[in-house]
From TrEMBL:
Organism of provenance: Zhenpiania hominis
Pfam families, per the entry: DUF58 (PF01882)
Keyword Cytoplasm: no
Name of the molecule in the record: DUF58 domain-containing protein
Keyword Membrane listed: yes
Length: 425
């Protein structure tokens, strides 16, 4: 992250330097013109104008030189950037050829890689020369640190004349599309409840009170929603009693991905997207290895609810391409929580529900408590950036304290590699 920020700062500094150079060049030309005109003013003859005439001829010759050069350069991109894994570097090569007997005194090729949002993330510039009829392969390395589909390669080539007064830019309209795949990590351990349904059914005391839609009651546990308290029965028993609702879940795992985040810079948002996807896929892989039924659930980039069960994930990049880009959650944003609540309350949903999110709110913890009350086993994967300061981090994670009291499992992670089992080959 720091390296990328430094790269962007350098690029901006280079732009400022180029602007300063152009201003200084204009000032120099004006001063040179004034100096050249002085002999003509004092001599008042044709010979006094010779310096001006020579200077103009040199400028014209340099401009003509540039016109020949821009028709004499050819380039060919040799790299095949199609698929790679996040965090790997790929070599990219451009073959430059001078087809004329003239010298390219200054060539400036620019290479780039886009970010998840389509903007240029990293721009690399180099200055080289080309001798007459010379061919040269220019290589640079591109590191892809984030999951997704990107464009990368040669952005443009800038050619300069002999005097450095003029330039011509050749824009490269061909983009390489690069698909960056996620990493899968071994999950060291996961508190999956294989017998949650059986145990909870033993705890139910069948009763019908007030004709409400619940299957029984039990003693109130800290963290249970207040609205589920059975007030009449609590008054008679002199202890708080809470309603228990029927559950038709199956022993399996639903993994819900939340692509809404608090407001961060672009680099942090892209890292959060990586964490959500890789944690979700790593947990799914864990479920597969342990023989659990599992499914990935999320709202697609078109706003549709998508659910992929085991065996239906055939093309990983197609799956990621269907996922929405990470976006900043607006005040009152509830789409992911609605998805969590809907999945948890579904009649035949899985008994274990994992929720991967960077948007930690009190409302989210309330939804997890509701699921716990419905005899589900909610598991929270809370993504918190490393860049968050200690005080800010404590305040951000404050809503999670109630989950401890309710014995709801949660993991606080900055990336999927912290799942504890190491990268899976």
């Amino acid at each position: 992250m720091k390296k990328k920020k430094i790269g962007i700062k350098r690029f901006r500094l280079n732009l400022k330097k180029e602007q300063k150079k152009r201003i200084l060049l204009v000032l120099f030309c004006v001063m040179a013109l004034v100096v050249l005109v002085i002999p003509a003013v004092f001599l008042n003859s044709i010979f006094g104008y010779l310096p001006v005439i020579v200077a103009l001829l040199m400028v014209a010759a340099s401009y003509g030189y540039l016109q020949v050069l821009k028709r004499s350069l050819s380039y060919d991109e040799l790299s095949d950037l199609s698929n790679c894994q996040r965090g790997t570097s790929v070599d990219f090569t451009v073959k430059l050829k001078n087809k004329s007997p003239l010298i390219f005194t200054r060539l400036k090729p620019s290479f780039y890689i886009s970010d998840l949002f389509g903007a240029d993330d990293t721009v690399t510039e180099e200055v080289i020369t080309l001798a007459p009829f010379e061919e040269r392969n220019f290589s640079f390395s591109v590191r892809f640190d984030h999951i997704g589909s990107y464009s990368a390669g040669l952005k443009k080539i800038q050619i300069f004349d002999l005097l450095g007064l003029f330039s011509h830019t050749i824009e490269n309209k061909n983009d390489y599309q690069v698909n960056v795949k996620p990493k899968i990590f071994d999950v060291a351990s996961l508190k999956i409840s294989n017998s949650a349904l059986t145990e909870s059914e033993k705890m139910i005391v069948p009763t019908v009170i007030d004709g409400s839609d619940y299957a029984g009651v039990r003693e109130y546990v800290w963290g249970d929603p207040i609205k589920t308290i059975h007030w009449k029965l609590s008054a008679r028993t002199e202890t708080y009693m809470t309603k228990q609702f029927e559950s038709y879940g199956t022993v399996g795992l639903s993994i819900i991905l939340d692509f809404y985040s608090p407001s961060y810079d672009r680099e942090t948002l892209m890292s959060i997207f990586d964490s959500i996807v890789e944690i979700g896929l790593s947990v799914a892989d864990y479920a597969k290895e342990t023989g659990l039924e599992y499914e990935l659930v999320y709202n697609s980039r078109h706003g549709e609810k998508k659910k992929f069960s085991a065996g239906y994930i055939t093309d990983l990049m197609e799956l990621i391409g269907d996922m929405p880009k990470i976006s900043v959650a607006e005040k009152g944003e509830r789409k992911a929580l609605d998805l969590l609540r809907e999945e948890g309350n579904a009649r035949y949903s899985h008994g274990n529900i994992a929720f991967c999110s960077a948007n930690i709110t009190e409302e989210m913890t309330n939804v997890l408590l509701e699921l716990k009350n419905r005899k589900k086993n909610p598991i929270l994967f809370a993504i918190v950036p490393d860049s968050m300061r200690d005080e800010e981090r404590d305040k951000f994670l404050r809503p999670l304290r109630i989950l401890d009291n309710a014995k709801i499992v949660f993991y606080i992670l900055s990336s999927a590699k912290e799942l504890g089992g190491g990268e899976k080959i």
